[in-house]
Amino acid sequence: MFSGIVEEAATVVAVERQGSNVNLTIKSSFTSELSIDQSVAHNGVCLTVVAINPDDTYTVTAIAETLERSNLGDLQPGSLVNLERSMRLDGRLDGHIVQGHVDTTAKCVDIEKLDGSTYYKFEYSVDPELVAKGYMTVEKGSVTVNGVSLTVCDSERDSFRVAIIPYTFEHTNFSQIQLGTRVNLEFDIIGKYLARLAELTTK
Fold first, then answer.
1. Given 3-state DSSP classes, what are the helix, strand and coil percentages for the chain, each rounded to the nearest 5?
2. Which residues contact 65 (CB under 8 A, 6 or more apart)?
3. Is the distance from CB of 147 to CB of 47 less than 8 angstroms?
4. Helices within the chain (DSSP H only)
5. pTM
6. CA 92, CA 134: separation in Å to the nearest integer?
7. What are 64-109's pLDDT values in tens digits?
8. Would you give the end-to-end CA distance of the chain in angstroms?
9. Nearest to residue 176, comparing CAs of 12, 41, 2, 5?
């Protein structure tokens, strides 16, 4: 379980294909605090640490299904990846409840710079059956983009915008997002539960 509050935009130093899997080696400031089998969100995808390396890097493995559902397969050496360790039960929930299970990817289709913030617009493919199950955005609701907990604005059927303040821009990989960049989306789990409840109680 995560909160969508990114701890660090870390650098990918190696990408190794192993059959249908991909091993990602990451250089992070908190590598020394990690342990084998620990869960860390990478661009919003929960992955298990499989190796701690002597050069302040660690390695995680993304399986084929993860690569198909997310943008982790797009990462290359030098890419920034948003990291968040799992929530502590005694901590504040500063973002929103994030599972680390990416629902789909979206494409950046517009970037608008305003005084003090930058608006990003993202479009994604809509599946009516999934929409009925809560896989959607709502105005002023929560959405996770590349692991970042954000508030939705201008929610449309297949798109939405988010406003990024300078701090978030500087401390996440939003600094590398350009037109056409693919990002990971996780829709709000509360909306999914409510949609499921409505489905079951109306039958």
1. 20, 40, 40
2. none
3. no
4. 64-69, 128-131, 166-171, 189-201
5. 0.93
6. 26
7. 999 999 999 999 999 999 999 998 877 777 888 899 999 999 999 9
8. 31
9. 12
